[in-house]
């Protein structure tokens, strides 16, 4: 039984070439210059993962005061390996995560490793435990840092370790060391001390941020080796090593129910977690003193809690975020609450603020600020001097460009339900008789929110109005809005998407002859299935890495441990055939353009190939652009430039619009 390793989806080989792409396609297609950033414990240095012009990543060390030249730490080409992150283990040393892959999609094995390296780029060592020479399997999981304050001195980290069974003597198989455990590891000496013995069903460990594991999640497997539908969480008291029951979380591939713990507060001796409250996700805390006293911390009557806000090396819980028209923060920490209000006044043009990192004493805070018309900037705030300084811009190629404001709107579905959405109009154009695009989001267990989106902004820059509907089946609005999910309840979800297109026409925003639909992943599925439901509504379809056949999607997971979860999410019944674009290709009349990477592990490229064949056999207009070696996100600047340029040209040609330079 294989474990699905989505990290391998970022291991790329070669993209389709770019031919005379527009300047806009090149600018918007360029990946974010800053892939990740971190602040040293003393606040004197930052580590930045910077994207190159194609698909590679380089980690660079800067001094905050620019007193010394930048130091190149480690890099990856993105061809056979990918640098995923680098974080500070101490002021002089970092820990970086890399992911690798072997084979092709049908037999692909992904694995990752952690390395530790000094700030001068020297003394690099593999931090992940070395696999046994007698191991009976591949150690795919190289470990994850779960506590950066692994002991009182701060000189060690706590990290998980995947133990693989091995042959010990003769033909005897030693299964006593199998599963996920925890070790305390010194990043300098590599000394390893077991903290939690390996457990075959262990899936997660949560610490208190001070070097002690307090919560453990176990997912029992079925008799056939597949992951079960429940996670059993246990906890231990401060003064005990005995594990006690905490909660049971059930669900499928994209949903869950029950108290799901995310963090432990050692001062309050509680676990913070999410659970349902009146049909919406709320934040609770449960006492870990043996009483299991449960208290509601934060809830909204209109939307779900989106997640916890954590800060510092101990990942201290300081607040919670939620999304109405825009993402909002509710801080529990009085100082940060006051600071958040101050930043809103200081940066009125960039109302989105996220705390990214902090020094060990939290005297300096690294943050990101941005908006719908600003891709964002990383900044450093000094609490003592009250100074806020700029560090790095996220997307320099877009600096100086006029971007399009994003407006929250609602439109009526056929049954009268008000569907929330975001409308982006091309800069300087009146909202009348425009070429327009409905762009459903992926997931389907996801939602769009207010902010910068490179795909939306590109099309707005090319003169299109763009509507992003949060159709029923989206997350964030509670259980009743999610329905059964966007596959089982596809008629409702796709109906809402189509009603968004009809609303654009009825409002006079869109010209009916230049109305298109563009989507990625589930959004690509929605783009194709929209034409099955109403063949005459959209005049052109662009689907990127789309699901095209629900049964094929199910079978893609057949050899992986998550099969039962995916199987439950897709379900059984007439909707599997009726809700599959490839099975209903004959109903589609609009021309179709698809893009897909041939290393996509989220949605296999065979789904797009199947769709293209079915459309051709039915005498329909279809093009499929395959990107060699690319995965689901097409994380390559040249590939994304091609995608944007080809999509724009396709829409203009098929809808009778004049080309733009």
How would you summarize what this structure contains?
The chain contains eleven helices and 38 strands. It is an alpha+beta fold.
**Main sheet overview:** 8 strands, mixed
How many DSSP helices? 11
What ranges have pLDDT less than 50 throughout 5 or more consecutive residues?
A: 1-19
**What share of residues is helical?**
10-25%
Determine the strand fraction and express it as a percent band: 35-45%
Determine the structural class based on helices, strands and strand pairing: alpha+beta
The best one-word shape is globular
Radius of gyration from CA coordinates: 25 Å
Number of strands: 38
Q: Termini separation (Å)?
A: 51 Å
Strand order of the largest sheet: 31-32-34-33-35-36-37-38
Q: What can you tell me about this protein's structure?
A:
This protein is α+β, with helices and mostly antiparallel strands. The protein has eleven helices and 38 strands. The strands form nine sheets. Strands 31-32-34-33-35-36-37-38 form an eight-stranded mixed beta sheet, with helices on both faces. The chain has a five-stranded antiparallel beta sheet with strand order 15-16-17-18-19, with no helix packed on it. A hairpin with a 5-residue loop joins strand 11 (166-167) and strand 12. Helix 5 crosses helix 6 and helix 7 packs antiparallel against helix 8 (563-570). The longest helix is centred in the C-terminal third of the chain and has 18 residues, at 637-654. The chain is globular and about 70 Å long.
